[in-house]
Amino acid sequence: MHSEAVYKGGSSGPGGRAVQVPQSNRGLEGHQTGPSPAYQPSKQGTATTRPEEELDRLTKKLVYDMNHPPVEDYFGRCARCGDNVVGDGSGCIAMEQVFHVECFTCITCHARLRGQPFYALDKKSYCESCYIGTLERCSKCSKPILDRILRAMGKAYHPRCFTCVVCNCCLDGVPFTVDATSQIHCIDDFHRKYAPRCSVCGEPIMPEQGQEETVRIVALDRSFHVNCYICEECGLLLSSEGEGRGCYPLDGHILCKNCSACRIQDLSAKISTDC
């Protein structure tokens, strides 16, 4: 946001206000009245001049006008219309330029900006409401983003609005992921929501805190934590190395080698007895 200054009689100071210009015949010494010596009317009639001559004439007139301003209070040329800004209170300074009061307006709605908050964008002046209309809007809350913009997945967010859909924690500067419908999740909630669940304990199989990967054991189309992958009969951990530590499933049961062999023997003995 910027401030602007109005030409008035008063002392100048920091902040870009107008320099004091006494309402007297200041600057008249050495000034002439009438046309510039470099710009005398032609006495030859209205003969057509060449473009080069016309350009030279206009250039000399501009230089003369700049060096010999009007005898009234003269503050420069208006950056908007190009005419002289003459007379106390007729102009203002904004964006390090001089404007007529009536020329210093919002580029969009043309409201006068003298004494009002305004914004400069690409050297153009905007009133507050029109400036806000030029801003990007947050993809979550749809409000204009006045400060820092957080961009993710091709969209713009307020940093405070970029949150996990499950726990609502802010994900500004934090690793995140999205599901198949582009819903934003923190890593932990994504795993808790979508990770396969252990068939023994029912908990999701997800990385430990601070880890990015984990091990999932699949047997008989079922998923297991490493520490949950045990023999259903004796509780032997089947995921560790060693003799007889592998899985020897029988009739849909997860068994170690010894327990599987024992069940097979029991089944064989039962069949023999039944016969």
UniProtKB/TrEMBL annotation:
Residues 33-49 have a biased composition (Polar residues). GO terms for molecular function: metal ion binding. It comes from the Eukaryota. GO terms for cellular component: cytoplasm; focal adhesion; nucleus; stress fiber. InterPro entries: Znf_LIM. Residues 76-134, 136-196, 197-266 form the LIM zinc-binding domain. It is found in: Cell junction; Cytoplasm; Nucleus. GO terms for biological process: cell-cell adhesion. Its main location: other. Keywords: Cell adhesion, Cell junction, Cytoplasm, LIM domain, Metal-binding, Nucleus, Repeat, Zinc. The keyword Metal-binding applies. Residues 1-53 are annotated as: Disordered. Belongs to the zyxin/ajuba family. This is LIM zinc-binding domain-containing protein. It comes from Gasterosteus aculeatus.
